[in-house]
């Protein structure tokens, strides 16, 4: 059936008129919906305002027999924990301030991952000397792996690894900077199977050897898992004594989900530190359920509690592990997820706005002086 040209033109004019009438309100409605959606996501300022910055006066006390403690109202900021994750961090945040220190790990049976690179069975690399070479005016946060399994702690207590400790002492002295050494970190964690008696004996021997070799730039950190302990031993049974401990450390992983109250086991460690006049550091921390790319829920679920805890409990040093846990072959953490800050731009921006505050000590020519480390 033939359709005349004028009829088609009339229909086109009609449809055009309808579109011109209805399209602007539709576009405006879509734009408003988008803006309304964006406005429901809090601003960075609002995210930071959720942090409780009040300090519990109960945790402001005098420190005894310790070293390299930040001044009142200050917290040393440390990041970690492998060559790969540190390099990746620098690539993603090239213009951010460098933290006051970096973390590295090694095992007491062998002098590896200290003076040169060493790739371990998790597929990651450790290199203490890299931290010294790359980052002047920063501290080294050194974690010594020592467990009860395979009689590692027993051998250490008998002196089987004294040669390794002496090499470490020589290297530590050569760095001429503060080193925070965590001897047998997470000593009370069930995964380490450390018996208190063998742990204390090994810890004391290690400290005695390091002191005898003149490694005076090492602060000794007694690092608790701050969770249900191995065989329900009392915390005090693992304690080497005030003369052997400069700092008390805790781990913060699942602890921070839910509230700034990290539970009775953590409270027990904090109170023990207070009773013995030792400063507390968060020696390891990470939001192990992951940082989502699409939302910022983890900020209120974990980061707000984490930072509130730092303020409330007067934490003097904090080490954050910027890691994709799913890439690591570590038994027992298969359910842990990607917790790297750059997974979510808004989370990372809030992180840096908080840690850029003067409270957090970062790399600077004045850092060592602030920590009471003598210039040589």
UniProtKB/TrEMBL annotation:
It comes from the Bacteria. The active site is at residues 186, 284. Transmembrane segments: none annotated. The keyword Transmembrane helix does not apply. Keywords: Glycosidase, Hydrolase. Belongs to the glycosyl hydrolase 26 family. This is Glycosyl hydrolase family 26.
């Amino acid at each position: 059936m033939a359709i005349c040209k004028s009829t088609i033109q009339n229909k086109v004019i009609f449809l055009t008129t309808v579109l011109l009438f209805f399209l602007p309100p539709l576009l405006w409605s879509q734009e408003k919906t988008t803006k309304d959606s964006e406005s429901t996501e809090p601003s960075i300022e609002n995210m930071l305002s959720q942090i409780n910055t009040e300090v519990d006066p109960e945790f402001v006390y005098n420190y005894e027999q310790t070293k390299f403690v930040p001044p009142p109202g200050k917290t040393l900021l440390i990041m970690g924990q492998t060559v790969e994750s540190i390099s990746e961090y620098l690539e993603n945040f090239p213009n951010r301030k460098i933290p006051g220190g970096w973390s590295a790990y090694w095992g007491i049976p062998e002098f590896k991952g200290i003076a040169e690179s060493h790739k371990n069975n998790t597929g990651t690399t450790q290199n203490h000397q890299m931290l010294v070479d790359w980052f002047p005016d920063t501290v080294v946060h050194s974690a010594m792996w020592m467990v009860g399994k395979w009689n590692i702690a027993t051998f250490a207590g008998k002196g089987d690894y004294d040669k390794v400790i002496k090499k470490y002492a020589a290297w530590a002295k050569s760095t001429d900077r503060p080193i925070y050494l965590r001897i047998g970190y997470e000593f009370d964690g069930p995964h380490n199977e450390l018996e208190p008696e063998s742990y204390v004996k090994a810890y004391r021997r290690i400290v005695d050897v390091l002191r005898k070799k003149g490694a005076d730039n090492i602060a000794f950190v007694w690092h608790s898992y701050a969770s249900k302990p191995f065989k329900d031993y009392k915390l005090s049974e693992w304690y080497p004594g005030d003369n052997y401990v400069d700092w008390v450390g805790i781990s913060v992983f699942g602890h921070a989900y839910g509230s700034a109250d990290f539970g009775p086991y953590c409270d027990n460690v904090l109170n023990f530190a207070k009773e013995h006049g030792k400063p507390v550091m968060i020696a390891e921390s990470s939001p192990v359920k992951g940082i989502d790319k699409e939302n910022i829920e983890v900020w209120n679920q974990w980061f707000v509690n984490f930072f509130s805890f730092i303020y409330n409990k007067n934490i003097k040093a904090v080490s954050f592990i910027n890691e994709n846990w799913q890439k690591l072959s570590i038994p027992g953490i298969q359910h842990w997820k990607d917790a790297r800050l750059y997974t979510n731009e808004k989370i990372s921006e809030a992180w840096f706005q908080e840690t850029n505050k003067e409270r957090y000590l970062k790399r600077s020519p004045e850092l060592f002086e602030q920590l009471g480390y003598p210039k040589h």
